[in-house]
Write a structure and sequence with these properties.
The structure is a single chain. By secondary structure, the protein is α+β, with helices and mostly antiparallel strands. The chain contains three helices and five strands. A hairpin with a 2-residue loop joins strand 3 and strand 4. The longest helix has 14 residues. The chain is globular, with a radius of gyration of 19 Å.
Length: about 170
C-alpha cells in the first residue's frame, strides 16, 4: 500500500538505487489518512493526531506548520502527498491495483492484481496497514456472547453527531 510506511519504503528503495514499483488498492496515496465516508476503515471526519507534528514528521521532510502542533487528518494527508511529490514517487506508483496474490516462483515474486495484471520482482515489501481489516466480535472469544446490542468498528464511525445520544457505549481498544 501507499500509506505512511509504504511510501517511506518506496522512497528508501529508490534512494538505494533499487528499481521499485509500489501498488495501492485506492486511487491515491495516503492510506488510512485518505478520508472516505464509504470505507469501513480509516480516519473519521473529526480525526486529529495526538502526537505533535515535531514528533510525527519524517526526518528528511519537515512538516509544514498547519496552525496547530496537532494536525487534523487533512493536514496529514496533504503532508503525505507533498512527500510523494517532493521525492518524485508518483512515477513508481500504481493506483487502483488490488493485490489478489503474491507467490514465490524460483528467484522471483509474482504478484497478481484482481484485474489480471502481473508484476515480477526479486523482492517484495508488504505494507498493507494495521487498521485495514477490522476485528470482529468473533476475535474476542466469548466476550460478546451475552451482548445483544449494536457493535460498530471504529472505522465505520465517520462523522461526529448524535449517533450515540442516550446510549451506553463501550469502547474496546483504542
Amino acid at each position: 500500500g501507499q500509506g505512511w510506511c509504504g511510501m517511506l519504503a518506496l522512497k528508501y528503495q529508490l534512494t538505494c538505487g533499487l528499481s521499485a514499483i509500489a501498488v495501492e488498492k485506492d486511487g491515491d496515496c495516503g492510506g488510512v489518512w485518505d478520508y472516505n465516508e464509504k470505507k469501513n476503515w480509516g480516519v473519521a471526519l473529526s480525526t486529529q493526531i495526538t502526537s505533535s507534528m515535531t514528533f510525527t514528521e519524517i526526518s528528511d521532510f519537515g512538516m509544514h506548520h498547519t496552525g496547530t502542533h496537532f494536525p487534523i487528518w487533512r493536514d496529514i494527508l496533504k503532508y503525505l502527498r507533498d512527500y510523494r511529490d517532493f521525492f518524485g514517487l508518483e512515477n513508481h506508483q500504481k493506483f487502483n491495483w488490488f493485490v489478489e496474490s503474491a507467490d514465490r516462483e524460483g528467484d522471483y515474486w509474482v504478484t497478481k492484481s484482481a484485474d489480471g495484471e502481473v508484476l515480477k520482482s526479486r523482492n517484495l515489501v508488504v505494507s498493507c496497514g494495521a487498521s485495514v481489516l477490522p476485528r470482529g466480535k468473533e476475535d474476542f472469544g466469548n466476550f460478546f456472547d451475552k451482548y445483544k446490542g449494536e457493535i460498530m468498528h471504529s472505522g465505520e464511525y465517520k462523522k461526529p453527531g448524535n449517533t450515540f445520544d442516550g446510549k451506553r457505549v463501550l469502547i474496546l481498544g483504542g
